[in-house]
Design brief:
The protein is an alpha/beta fold. Helices cover 44% and strands 17% of the residues. The protein has helices spanning 7-13, 31-37, 54-64, 80-88, 102-112, 136-146, 156-160, 162-166, 178-184, 194-210, 222-231, 241-257; strands spanning 18-23, 42-46, 70-74, 93-96, 148-153, 173-177, 213-217, 233-240. The protein has an eight-stranded parallel barrel, surrounded by nine helices. Strand 2 (42-46), helix 3 (54-64) and strand 3 form a beta-alpha-beta unit. Helix 3 (54-64) packs parallel to helix 4 (80-88). The termini are far apart.
Length: 263
């Protein structure tokens, strides 16, 4: 049985923008179907700021494997074991926040790659192969290629160390968490500040030099999203379920309440 395709990687491999649908509040097996129907490539199942348990996250992930969208989870930096459990149970990628140093990036890469590239343990259900994997060695080698690992850059220290982080084998994406970066810079919410623009430029250059992908989160202003995509951002979190639901629901209610009423 061939491995389930990683749609996020396919987009990135083609040099295109790979769009993520944030899963914060939604639950249930239809989440991936909704994301696919609305043009997204991967789910960003948030176990850092969202309240999803590993059980809930992996049920969404397992369903998504057959829905045309790739399930990727975000776990906390001090809970990498939740990321490995998610990978064992349907996820095809992990995003780790607040990676500030090369040493931390190496720990992330090691946790999510099988030997000889890392220390990930073998033994979870082979959901990526619909329970029909090839030989263990072949499966581990293929999963090492297909699983996407992203480190989030969210502090000036991380920006300073971007080149070293990008050079770590097994790290695929350096994803700027723009909201936390602005907060740590003392300019919360100023996503277009010149220091933020400089940070994007520096991380983009580090990614180009190392052959890695620049990612973007926390940028929902269309003008600045366009600017940072122009700088090279390709792994892009488009927004979270609640914000997109509120935007659509708010637009619909404004339209209906604005209709003229017959006398």
């Amino acid at each position: 049985m061939p491995i389930v395709p990683n749609h996020a990687r396919r987009r990135l491999g083609a040099g295109e923008v790979s769009l993520g649908f944030g899963v914060h509040h939604l639950r249930g097996s239809a989440v991936g179907m909704i994301a696919t129907a609305t043009g997204y490539d991967w789910l960003f199942i948030d176990m850092e700021h969202g309240a999803a348990s590993v059980q809930e996250a992996t049920q969404i992930a397992i369903a998504a494997l057959g829905q045309g969208v790739t399930p990727i989870v975000r776990c906390c930096k001090d809970a990498l074991f939740e990321g490995t459990r998610a990978l064992d149970n349907g996820a095809m990628g992990v995003v780790v926040p607040h990676v500030d140093t090369e040493a931390e990036a190496r720990a992330v890469a090691a946790a999510f790659r099988f030997p000889p590239l890392g220390t990930r343990s073998w033994g979870g259900p082979p959901f990526a192969y619909n329970f029909q994997p090839p030989a263990v060695a072949e499966a581990q080698e293929e999963l090492n290629r297909e699983i996407l690992v992203a480190c989030m850059i969210e502090t000036p220290e991380a920006v300073e160390n971007a080149a070293a982080i990008a050079a770590v084998p097994g790290v695929d994406v350096l994803m700027i968490g723009t909201s936390d970066l602005t907060a740590s810079m003392g300019i919360p919410g100023q996503i277009g500040h010149e220091r933020v623009q400089a940070a994007y430029g520096r991380v983009a250059e580090a990614c180009r030099a190392a052959g890695k992908v620049l990612g973007m989160g926390g940028v929902y202003d269309e003008a600045w999203a366009a600017a940072y995509v122009a700088l090279g951002a390709r792994f892009v979190l488009a927004g979270s379920d609640h914000t997109m639901l509120m935007a659509a629901a708010g637009g619909r209610s404004r339209f209906l309440r604005g209709l003229p009423l017959a006398d």
